[in-house]
Queue: 4 jobs
Job 1
Amino acid sequence: MLQFDSMELPEETVALRSEVRSFLDSEHSHLTRRNSDFGSGHDPEFSRKLGAKGWIGMAWPKAYGGGERTFFERYVVTEELLSAGAPVGAHWIADRQSGPLLLRFGTEAQREKYIPPITRGESYFSIGMSEPNSGSDLASVRTTASKVADGWVVNGTKLWSTDAHRNNYMIALVRTEPPSENRHAGLSQVIIDLHDDGAQIRPIKNIAGHEDFNEVVFEDVLIPEDRLVGEPGNGWEQVTSELAYERAGPERFLSSFRVFVELVRAVGKDPLPHEADAIGRIASHLMALRRMSISVAGMLEAGKSPQVEAALVKELGNNFEKLLPEIARLAAPDGLSGDEERLRSFRSTFTDTLLGSPSFTIRGGTREILRGVIARGLGLR
Amino acid sequence: MSTRQMLTDSAERIFADHCTKALLDGAQEGEFPGDLWAVLKENGFAELATADSGFELGDAFAVLKVAGRHAAPLPLAEIMLGNRWLGSADRLVSVGLVDGDVVRDVPWGRRADAVIALDPSGGPPSVLEVTQVDSTGSNLAGEARDVLALTAALPLGSNEPGLELLALARVAQMAGALERILELTLRYANEREQFGRPIARFQAIQHNLAVMAAEVAAAVRIADAAVDALGGERFEFEVAAAKSRVGEAAGVCAESAHQIHGAMGFTHEHQLHHFTRRVWAWREEFGNEIYWRRRLGDHIAGLGADAVWDFLATRG
């Protein structure tokens, strides 16, 4: 049976939380279009300000610009930023997974080169996992990196790489050996410089009309020898550990949170019974999810590897992120109430969130893949 | 090992020994489980929540979760909280709701030594030291729920939040029953073979079990959080969130459990219904999801939109 223990955030997080709130109060110019979806706002100036506060790479070693703070402290900063709808997209992937990956598997030279600019909020990473014919079946990737005298030659196409047209680097999963009986063998990870290496980057418009994700094409792109991350052939293990970081944080249940805030604003302080019902229902889900997510942070802090628990939080959280706007839209006053001016803020927040919501149960592992991970944890596979 | 762990281990042994299918079937037919009641008294469970028991109130709710796991056919929550409020030790105290000139939904009211009457309209609670049974009946799980005449009621000396504590009791019982429902369903899916293999090997079944496991984990976590909030200023709202969220999980899990068990789980002969019918019954008792969501929602709306996050972002 999967167990999520009671976990109280430590005392030192109280002052930190206040500090983040004061900071956000003074940064209203960055909060003009609040959205709790971590991928919704790419604001380098804001990321640099967070870096200056020490809120990127918080749990990393000081030697590389990190803060050597706890997972709980990182948790508090993250949930405060997301709940406020702050634009965290630029540094998000670097902070959440590329940095930890390089710290764990990278060479000393790679750590010294790549980590400090991440902590300053100046260097941004994209994910290079999916391909045109490889989505959930990640081990089927066909992009290759072939060894040559002065480095590696990369050929292939990466797809759905968020902000590759704006970011500095991509960590790409590539084949360094031809496919064999063991599908997980022969994969490696390499760092691509998205500005200088000569990859062709083509933004793809999404259903909201935004150009956030990209197709990235490599045609005989030569990268230096020192761009390989970890051991050649160890890519599968590395990418799996990267996904564990990706799954249980507050970003997995807060993506539509601003819709809740605007719902409460729209109904006012004396709600009708069905409005109070919707507010209470949403709150009950958030209270359960947040405690489960904090419980996972506690397991990470204790040095455990709660992969199944993380998948379970993502499964529940992502489904709830989609349910929240559906509950809210039917509780909020409808379009015939003649109250549109008062509802403007609710409507725009709702629209932004709904148009982003299909991605909630796809990114970071689809709902179907996660249910498989949970089923394995239950001993069914 | 913590005191609470020792206590729940001991409760687990007692309930596992006594709460057989035969006992549950008999209780549904009106046979009072006298042996179980004697053993519970003998082991001090009836007085577990009293002021001088040496245990924390949270320990009583940990035991109630175990009782829920085994569908124990006694009103242990009412007994423990009732003895606490009456200052007695091991009387068979039950609890019901004032409805005009009767007290209804009284578990084993026909056997009770005393009955506490809660007034859902907000009036002060009272106690019936002499009981007069108006009619006997049961809830949809077949648990004894009787109607008593509201006569000779005396004021209850306790000012604890009775409705909240009993709602939390049902939350704890549901959390335990949901764990059991998941276990039974996992076991059945691994044993039942169709098309030459256990049905647990089919992806459709696996996904339903994954959803159940997630609902159960959420239910258990929020139930524990509400117990942790006992005595705190947020207690009322933690109970509200828990009763609503666990009630929602109960609906999802009971439905899936029956679907996976197929026709077999729809029979009286199978034990599954003793647990699924209980969570269906318990999600209605002491306020259903709508009741508690409205209380929570009214409170949050009153705080205002810009205070919503602060309300949610507690330390514990």
Job 2
Amino acid sequence: MALLEVNDLRTHFRTDDGIVKAVDGVSFEVEKGKTLGIVGESGCGKSVTCLTIMGLNNRRNTITSGNALFKGDDLITMKPGRLREIRGNDIAMIFQDPMTSLNPVHTIGRQLVEAIQLHRDVTRKQARARALELLKAVGIPRAERRIGDYPHQFSGGMRQRVMIAMALINDPDLLIADEPTTALDVTTQAQILELMNRLQREFGSAIIIITHDLGVVAETADDVVVMYAARVVEKAPVDSLFSRPHMPYTWGLLGSLPRLDTDTERLTQIPGQPPSLLNPPRGCRFNPRCPYVMSVCREKEPELLPISNDPMHLQACHLDEQTKDREAAKLLSGTMAEAS
Amino acid sequence: MYRYLIRRLLWAGVLFLAVTIVSYIIFFLVPAEPARLIAGPQAPPDQVERVRKQMGLDDPVIVQYGRFLGGMMPVSFNGGPHLKHPSLGRSYATRQPVTEIIKDAAPVTASLVFGGALLWMLIAVPVGILSALRPRSLLDRSAMVFVLIGISAHPVWIGLILIYFVGYKAGLTPLGGYCDMINPSTDCGGPMDWAHSLILPWITFAILFAALYVRMIRANVLEAMNEDYVRTARAKGAPEWLVMRSHVLRNAMLPVVTMLGMDIAIALGGAIFTETVFGLPGLGRSALQALEGFDLPAVMGIVVFATICVIVFNLFIDLLYAMIDPRIRLS
């Protein structure tokens, strides 16, 4: 049994303009100790998917359906009290912006101790010792002194390390990292990813990493889910996705990676805008932007189906396989060197 | 820290000089003759002239201002330096030392202002928080109607309405006047009578600020609830009461502390209305009476005292703020 099994998850928000279908039938699994990458443009529903799993959406205007089985228990229908016991203990989360994710009026020590004492019956002293141990593990220099400092006394990279320490402090089985490196500069990004990889080996946690950066996925993930407009459009083991991408949207993402081997001044981009989730396009949601669009794409939404000779690789596209293989090969002749 | 304090105190001195100079100049620009007022309307011109000489009112403004400043110093250099009681002069109208007028009036105003501030916080904090927790609920909407009324209605009108209905019609409270808490000089006195006589003034005084604070606290709490660190706290598995207490309210109340410091100072000015309506012998009413009688020493004394209060209060709030917000360091 997978550690986390998400089936047909839907999260709809009631707004003044109508119902925004932010997540619309998403399914995936996370295996114990493995890393799942969720990739997609801003606003495609990656973050909302994870906030829904954590039960962190504003309940007032949210309609949720489907299920998310964590060790067999459904997180979506679970009682709030039970979910609270799981949050921060079995499932922990790291957020995008470390500058605002820590409470400015409490010392980081106090915030770490709080995270432990919410779930463990330990003394303040024991909790503090554990906090110190984690701060050292995530590479905060002079941790003994810095544990009494306030968040504003740390740099962005250091704050993200503190966030990671806080997430791992109770040995969670699953760590959800929502764009953990987006707000950081490139060298710090690499350090944080390296740190997460190392800690995963040490702590054995499974990780869901949400990102729009395929480079991050290539570096960290075992499996990849590509989301577009609130839906999963491709799902595959990381090698298979990068060697045989099967969906024009994924090609677009791969094609827009910066490349060093060509002289083009501008980055390649996917033309057009992501569709409104209030009124998604009929048929395939990518059809208005797809260079390979056919008339069937405007009528019928493609199903998420395995490709021939690889049952682990699912994709949702009407194009025939020969065209896909040909186009993917053309695209990859240059890009793979950069992406992996 | 010490450098900060010294700099603040120096600035306080500059502010103090500026306020007193402006008050002095305004007073001398007004075409009134204090000597005539002191000598009385029937006094012959030579007597008025004598009073003017005696009081030093014929000296240039700058000399009079210097004499006023000198009087406030705790040291005198007349016939060798020696310590003396700082003096603000005597009232033209009553010949009473101004310090005594202030000593009598200040406790009344302090009772009104601090009691009022306590009342407006007791109203605003729970209502503001509950409105933020249940936006668009019946409570929230009623609170917003109260805010609108509180901000629009003038304290004089509120005061008169309260006196008429609560004091006169229902007979629940005195119609006006003040009862001393500690040393009763009139027939009423003691803490109970003191509070009883101040209930309506407190309510009148507090309504405007309670309204402003409900709105401010509601907005702050709503904003703080959407902060990323609040989401972090929930993601840690913190129960909702802990999220509110330790993460939302702690941050939402920081700006309220600053505002409270400034508003209590502003409220000193607003006290004039309330004191007048309820006949409370406080600083506001004393200042108003002194102004009507062109009683310069009394006016100056009250201005000086109020200025000192505002300066000290602001300094206190700044120090308090540095204590509760770790991002602020006094340097």
Job 3
Amino acid sequence: MRIAAIVFSPLLALAGGLFFLGLARKVAARVGWRCGPPLVQPVIDIIRLLNQSSVSHGGLFSLGIVFALAGAAAVVLFLPLGGPPPFRESGGLLAILYLMLLAPLGIALSGGAAANPNSSIGVSRSLILTLAYELPFLLILLAVMTRYGTISLVKIVESQAGGGWAIFSLPLLLSGIAYLLILPAILGFRPFEIANAPQEIASGALVEYGGRFLALATIQQALNLFIGPALFVNLFLGGAGNPLFFFAKMLAVFTGVLLVNAAYPRLRLEQAVGYLWRWPTLIALAGLAAVMWW
Amino acid sequence: MKLELILAVAFGGALAAYPAGKISSRLRNILVVGAALFPAAALAGLYGVRTGNVFYSGFLGFPLILRIDTLSWLFAVTVSVLGALGAVFSLGYIREGEVSDFYYPNFLLVNTAMLGVVLAGDLVSFFIFWEVMSWAVFLLICHKRGRALAAGIKYIVMSLIGSGAIFIAILSLRSAAGTLVISRIAPALAGQPPGFLLWLLLLFSTAFGIKNALWPLHAWLPPAHSEAPSPFSAILSGVLVKIGTYGFILLFYVLIGRNAFLGLGRGWFSPSHLLSLAGGVTILVATFIALRQDDAKRLLAWSTIAQAGYIFVGLAFGTGLSVAGGLLHFLNHAVFKALLFLAVGTVEFRTGGVRDLNSLGGLSGRMPFTAAAAVVGVAGLIGVPLTGGFVSKWMLYQALILGRSPFLAFAALFGTWGTVLYGYKLIHHIFLGQLDRKYDGLRPAPFSMRLPMAVLALAVMVFGVFPGWPLTVIDNIIGHLGFDPLGVTAGGMISQSGALNTLNLLAAVLVSCLLAAAVLKAGRKTPRVGPEDNYAAGTVVPRDRYNFTVSFYDPLERMLKPYLRDFADEFGRKLTGRGRTFFGLVRRIYTGDVRDYVLYIVVFLALLILTQLGWRPWR
């Protein structure tokens, strides 16, 4: 049973993430009155990329992308996806937070080893953007953990099953709103598509990837698209009793992000940092203060 | 083995290294490595031993005592093992010459004095070893002369302030408690008013805070760490700063005692909380100043201040979990920071003294071993899962969150994300990006420099995968300090509030890694290409012209610049400037004219006679 869960949950996340990737292109196209590629286009792309030849820029270049993908896959094993996660007691939300770090770090290592200035610029941008959204993000997570008095994500979900969704309980409402405000930045969608801006810096850290490397990077991106909303559903929408409900909740959240993505242009980096450190941070701070002294 | 024998042999080795160097450098090298390894080997066997004895009783009527318990053991072993690794690294790093004869005795002297500090069983011998340590460190910081001399002066001035504070504190303790034997002080202080305990806290915290580089007492550390010879920077950062940490543990939980310390004040205004806040400020300020550094060793120096802040928050916060987390982070930090200083030192050694991050790049192809060691070190520094730093930081965060101090937890967590930025900057600017042509012929590090790095890198990973080993020792220590046990398992711990199992993490990450690597390796072979094959929008670029390093985090730096000044250092500079003006004026009384001096004497005598006659100006 547990073995099945270990195999099943990354596959579920991968399928969901690839669906989200396809959906993102489709929605962006439809909002602009275009037809857009079919929903399975990312899958076709990955199969094609896996069969193409690729070149490497050395050991750290390959190691980085492997670490990035492994980090993203490992996070999924600790997330409840409409049921208890395969690995239950392993450091809770704090460990998840740290595992989420492996993906950007791995990409950064790999991108730096490629010795292309475009990728260095992309990495610099992505790390600054990460730092920018981590400020409100950490405040949100701390508010939730302080409210429920635990660091275990499973226990947070269980508490909500008894006491209603966190986003509708008054002190956590502000934190939930702040999470929604920074979700596009976590997922790297417009207006925060700064780190891999294809027209400016040739996809940033991904510029030297081709063939199997690009396939792995796309899979990592798909998992990343899955993790951001999944965490929101677990923290604020009470998780779910089965994977189907869970996915439905995620889809609702994700569609909102896609509409924002389709409507906005890209911000400059300092504008993005300025925004993230102003409204989301203030709201998250107010949320944490409310949890502490309500 | 008797403790005084270990110390005597270590001191003897330090003194003998100088004449041995005059005879032959090979003899000296053997002697140095032997003298550095001996205490490590002798102390390792003393785990779990609790003993102490008077080794000299005639010093002004005070008995001088050496003793060992698990706390001293942990610090002593860390000090001596790092000392031995630093000595081995020095063999390659320190170029032969006149000054090398002077370097080794000092190096061993510092290590031995640190051992003495952690093994001292009474405050008089503690103070004596403390002073020997401070002076020997001063000589080593100044080793390279030039700019190092200014750094050394700054260090010794602050260090002397700390020594003065300890001295006053010892005198106050002597008159209040009547004893200076460390284990007898806490019971003797039982009836003292809280004001006296605060006074002790203030004095000792000044001294230990300066050594521990606690904000705002950190000003000496960045220049000292960056100017000292690299193997000694590793010792400075890895263990010497932590002697301040040891002092704090001694102060909070042994001299004053856990209950008395945590019982002082109430809520926000308790010393425990205020000191934790100082630790939180240290983390944030030092992390973001480190982000702006362009000198590799200066960046690491600021990072040391920030990480010492983590340790200090854990100690001052005062729950069993937080103190254990602080102690574990002490151990981990000693390992990974020493590793990073050695890696940077290797680069400095091979490139002919280049530490400027903007003029390096792409060295991973030339020094793959050093690059790998640095990546492991930075991973430990950030606290990537499966390295030692992860476990200790996890414990600290958990303690702070469950202790309902989310703002302190926020400082610690956000500091970690700042660490990601400067840690990556260090790796990227030195080892990634394009290689400058002038470094084409760079050779890898010699074996004597690679060996210490290999040992330390292994330790970073072992402490991350099997944290149960160090945690067992730490569980024992906090038990003696009066806290509840942790519930240690091989892969972490199981407690009421949350469990950690690094073996699960290891399994998850390892299997995912293998799968991803299999996909990457499957199919056709991947040819390796150089940077000249890079995408450059259809143009050909020269190989070493396009390296993005200068102002790497520019938008962020510009935004943070107005807030991120080293206010403490600026205050110190202003103070010394004012002092110079004032004392320049005072100096004018030395006119060089005998008649003026006679006048001073006459005025002074007149004042004395007046007071004798019954004029009391102060009434």
Job 4
Amino acid sequence: MMHGPISILPLVLDHIGYSAGGNAIIRDLSLELRARACTVILGPNGAGKSVLLRLCHGLLQPTEGEIRWSGAQPEKHQAMVFQRPVMLRRSALANIRYALKRAGVPRAERLKRALDALCAVGLEKLADRPARVLSGGEQQRVALARAWALRPDVLFLDEPTSSLDPAATRAIEEIITAIRDSGTKVIMTTHDLGQARRLADDVVFLHCGRLIEHTEAATFFERPVSSEAATYLRGELLV
Amino acid sequence: MNRRSLLGLLAAVFALLSLPAAAEEKFIVVASTTSTEQSGLFSYLLPAFKAKTGIDVRVVALGTGQALDVARRGDADVVFVHDRDAELKFLNEGYGVDRREVMYNDFVLVGPKSDPAKIGGTKDIVAALKKIAESKAPFASRGDRSGTNAAELRLWKVAGIDPESGKGSWYRETGSGMGPTLNTSAAMDAYALTDRGTWISFKNRRDLVISVEGDQRLFNQYGVMLVNPAKHPHVKKELGMAFVEWVTSPDGQKTIADYKIDGEQLFFPNYKRSGT
Amino acid sequence: MLTGAGLGDISAAFGAALGMLAALDPRLLQIIGLSLEVSLSAVAIATLVGLPAGALLALTRFPGRAGVVALLNSLMGLPPVVVGLVVYLALSRAGPLGTLGLLFTPAAMVIAQTILIAPIVAALARQVIEDAWREYEEQLRSLRAHLADSVWTLIWDTRFSLVTVVLAGLGRAAAEVGAVMIVGGNIDGVTRVMTTTIALETSKGDLPLALGLGIVLIAIVVLLNVAAYVIKETAQRRYG
């Protein structure tokens, strides 16, 4: 799985909606995400950020509308990292090799790619350590290595540093930046505005399940188009 | 522990599983009674039979009624029980062939030393049962369709008493084997009818002693039969008949007589060639 | 009914138990060996069948699933004597599987105990794996793992908790007497196991001996559990 010439981007969301238990969580949302570096999805709690991520990644199916990728077999060229890293009960290295095996990478290649990924996140010394005894920050780094080893076209991250301390957060942000620089499209949610400012190239702002605006990062943080975004950026509660 | 060694372990378990039961090809299943087995006779008799013939005997010990039912279903090759009426019924229904009377032992009436029914030292079992019924002294019955139970009910009938009338007060049916029934009698200070063999080996007597013995009507006849191969073709006819022949042979009969507990002979061989 | 066991009997029982073990009485060893063989075999088969079944049930959604889960949970309480009776009728010469000639053999006992334990293993495994699935589901689906993949991955990852599940099944098997008595026939030297021996000695009125055997049986089961617990704890500390 390499960044082939045929990417699965752009991703087009065409009037999608998602309801569960009688509640509409995402309403009439249309969005296009191109192969530009890092898209951050912002919005108050309950805005539907995490749900939107899961809809894009295919963990949920939209109840209305359509999601369209480009290229062939889009589900094979994505990866996702969650707020709480899910480590299998085996070594850090084995966790990555597991993902590579599921992706159909031939056995001979798996070990090398897994080791490379661990080195890239600075954890080569912990390769044989049981993943579940690692610290939260280390586990999240393994999760990122696991995703990166798959060389996805798109990497989804759902509040990847919410559970981590500042030192670990910085390490994660550096890795995310490196992944973005290597050509992978990053789509992430966060409620940390500072992090958003540090990492975003463009911002998708949600409120009550609707898309309020999709703006270049620089513009968004200085002069957002919508009043809701302005309220949010001022640190006020947006109801 | 990786996947490969796990599979290896499971394979080993499967191999182990195929071990049981395949070992001895030369064996028969004999359906007999719990009281016979608990008397220890089989532990004495069967090794002698095996030494002579090389045939392993697997005894399934149940109540007489159950033993005959097992044989009716074809799950045994030979029956060895002690209830003449039930055996003849079995024979006449065509489930058994060549019934031979093998040996007899006797029943005894046991009861509390204090003798609440005032039986005294009588040798008359029927009189004793009448006294028990009159005084409403507690009596523990097996109530389980066993040969012993059948004998007990026959004696009540001879005495002209319907023990069911005492059900719930002095006549207590345990629905279980001889041992548990004796346990119950010991605990309740009740009278009970038991075969002598079980009584001799029974260790939990507390205050129970023999109240009546020696009455001719207390004799308990054993019969042996081959399960009818015409009804159940898989029955091991030759091996089963070898057993029937042996227990009724002079050698087998002597072995039966030689079996003693505490120096006491329990079973009295009485096979007569002309008998049924 | 069994009021004969006073303090004297209980100390006699301990004495009997220790004496038998110390003497390594060959008949006792044969009975213990057979008990372990039957119950361990039954547990092995029940685990092979029950674990994947429980895992599949944990990972799938289908109409009526709640009913299946409830049914499986209630099958944990199958009365051994009823299972014994049903297996007896099936394996009897007069029954559908009579030609196999399995009645009154250890194989029949293994069959009966497997039927008893498989629901226990499956139901408890389902619970363990369903709890783990809550944590693992999204990540495994993100990695595009197929159902079969996820089943084995979860079984492997919950292996320490599953050891406890298997032990629960083993305990049930080793302790039951109703099923093995009926389908085995308690034949001396062939199908006589610890529990049926205890029942026999009790009915013969030899209570100290029966108690002694009971102590031996409990000791064996406790030993197995302690060993498994120690293995589980050390492994868990290593693997997290």
